Each structure stands twice: as structure tokens, then as C-alpha cells.
Amino acid sequence: MSKKKQAILNAATIFFAEKGFNETTTAELAKITNSAEGTLFYHFKNKTELFLAVLESVREGILHEFDQYVGTRGVETGLEMMEEIIAFFLYLAGHKEEWILLIQRHYPYKFARVNEECRSHLKAIYNRLLDLFEGAIRRGQADGTIRELPARKTALIIFSMVHGVTWLKLHDLYETGSLYHELLVSCRRVLASDEEGSKK
To answer: Is 26 among the domain residues?
Structure first.
């Protein structure tokens, strides 16, 4: 991908996240990236195509960031992996705030009702995140640190808790830094096998 196209994608991600789709104009995207509007339309046919490219970029970015974040940590159990995934998601909300803000806005879901490609990108983003949580649960069930639970449904519940905390953080409603420890403790209570729970 050319540097100019990447610069347009980066700027569009921030603008769509902070202002929304309808409030973001191609003129301001051209200005912020030192481009002519024609350059934007050379790389992307229209604003809708640009928005869909942003969603795809976010999905790929989450995978890359996860590999970078977790790849450097030596986790031994599924329960430890779950704690790392929770920490990763909270890290992502601080490090790539625009990605989380973007998928928390109402517009993408409204658009997904009439645009199958948008729906597909959103499902791919959420499925990938849920896969991480579910993978940790299945690993923990295999190694005995996580009790027998419906893995996918439990992953969705844990993810919803973590996603809710990031929503509070990004919208400045509460100081959520102090909730990190309690979030981990709550997740451990839900997940830990009897043997693992007795160690704490």
C-alpha cells in the first residue's frame, strides 16, 4: 500500500471514529492528508468504499497488535491467557483508541443493516475478538485451569464486560483504571476451576 493511501486510511479512521461517517467530509480528509480530493477518489471510489476499507484495516490491525502484544509474553495456562487478552483489549483501547471508538459508534451498525460488506467486516472484527477469548477458555479447559462452561457464550459474556469497561473509559464517564484488578478478579471467579480457585 502506498504511503499516501495509508495516510488517508489513518486519517479517515480517526475522523470516522471521532466525528462519525456523515459528519466527515472528503474535503477535510484531503486537507489533513495534504491531498487533492481527486487523490482520495483515485484510491477509493467514494466515501463508502473508504469507510469499508477502514473497517478492514481495523480488523487486520487488531490481529497484528494482538500478535505483537501476546507474542512477547510467556503464558502457561488458559486462565493466564485470558488475563493477557483482557489486558490486551484494555491496552488497545488506550493505544488505538480510534479503533475501539469506531466500533462503538452507532453508524456502522445502522449502515450494516443495508450494506452486507459492512456487516461482514463488523462480524469479522467481533468474531476475531471473540475467538481470542474463546481460545483462552478452551485452552484453560484443556489444561484444567478453567472449568467446563459453554466456551463461546462465556467468551461473549467476558468480552461484553471488558468492552463495557472500555466504553466507560473512552467516554470519560468514570475513572476505569481502578477497575482493572476487580475486572480480572470477576473474570477469574466466573472461569476458574475449583482447583485453580482454591489457589487464590
So the answer is: no
Selection from 61, 59, 51, 60 nearest residue 115 by Cα: 51
Q: How many domains does the chain have?
A: 1
Q: pTM for the full model?
A: 0.83
| SS3 assignment, position 32 | helix
pLDDT in tens, 52-106: 999 999 989 988 888 888 766 678 899 999 999 998 888 888 889 999 989 888 9
Give the chain's radius of gyration (CA, Å).
19
Rounded to 5°, the CA angle 136-103-182 comes to: 50
Single out the residue of 104, 65, 102 nearest to residue 85, CA to CA. 65
Burial letters for 75-112: b for 16+ Cβ neighbours within 10 Å, e otherwise?
Answer: eebbbbbbbbbbbbbbebbeebbbbbbbbbeeebeebb
Asked if 122 and 108 touch (Cβ cutoff 8 Å), the reply is: yes
60 within a domain of the structure (yes/no) = yes
